[in-house]
Amino acid sequence: MRTARRYLAREIFRSCAVVLLALLGLFTFFALVDDLDNVGDKFSMLALLYMQALALPTRLYDLLPIGLLIGAILALAGLAQRNELVILRVSGVSGMRLLGMLWIITVPLVIGATLLSEFVTPAAEIKSGEASLMFRGKASGARMDSGYWFKEPTRDGGTRIINIATLLANGDVEGVTLYEFKPGQELTTMSKAATGSFTNDKLVLHDVVETRLDDSAAEALANAKQPTTMPAQVAKVPQRELDTTLSADRLLARVLTPERMSLGTLLDYIDYLNQNQLDASRQVVALWRKVAYPFTLFVMITIAAPIGFMQTRRGGVGAKVFVGILLGVGFFMLNQLALNVGMLSRWPPWLTALGPNVGAVLVALGALSLMEYRHATTRLIQTRWPWRKNPV
User: Fold this and answer.
1) Dist. CA 106–CA 301, nearest whole Å
2) pLDDT score of 288 more than 70
3) What is the domain range of residue 48?
């Protein structure tokens, strides 16, 4: 069986490589055409090609499941057309045993996808964000029009809100605004700094303008009375060091969407959000989806098995590939629907991530079992059908 497994692996890997190369080329071409309008003096054609090259690992990670599905169907359909699968079945290999061989063949792809997700894709995404900042002056990710926003507690039990207008490629920041509140959510200080940098768990701000509100300001405004002291004092400070849980790595992580973070970075960011009492539901769902991604590859090879095992007389290779594409697109849409509905309905994250995979693998196993035991099932129906008339 080792020889048969190696032969199956070689055929599947070859087909998957061809399909992935075709899909990568197609999607990269569409992305290049879409971004050609942005090419100008500051954003050259060479910069566009560089950013598209940085997007290749992420694109490969996204296309790997559908590429595995189509490639496996192509390989298995070719083996079925040449009656090589029939030879394996006649030699005593059952359909379920063939499926087990396919699962073993998928293990190297799972390991490669995990390495790609943990090391290559996050690094490429950060480089892509840095390149976007350099060439376009903006970065994708969790950035609003007003910049990046962070919230964290202070040592005296209050709250600090940090707004960063611009993130530089080296991790430094520009246009920093601080809002500091008392434990009763009463604003005490607003500070604006031209630039800032992170050093030893501290945010060092430069050219700071501080506006401190007097304690009697809120009471005077509430009672509509003239304050007895100055309600606000403005001071300029050349430099200010701020103890913060924010770091350059966590700030750069905001450039990435949760699905693009590595597992360690995502766990650290979830911990940061929980410590500061911020909503981490999207990040938790992304964590579960990242954990479920290897299982998705096993689901794809399981779906491919019953389609590829069908004999040629029940449909040619082209028809099988077409069915595989439909199933792959349908599974992708089901995953996205489960994600959106789960977020809106507040389903458990594990259900949102694993539900479509479990449902798809159960359907595929049912179809494979029906093919495996179809003759026995037909005989059972013919003999046990409730209204079948027994011969006299």
Assistant:
1) 8
2) yes
3) 2-136+281-381
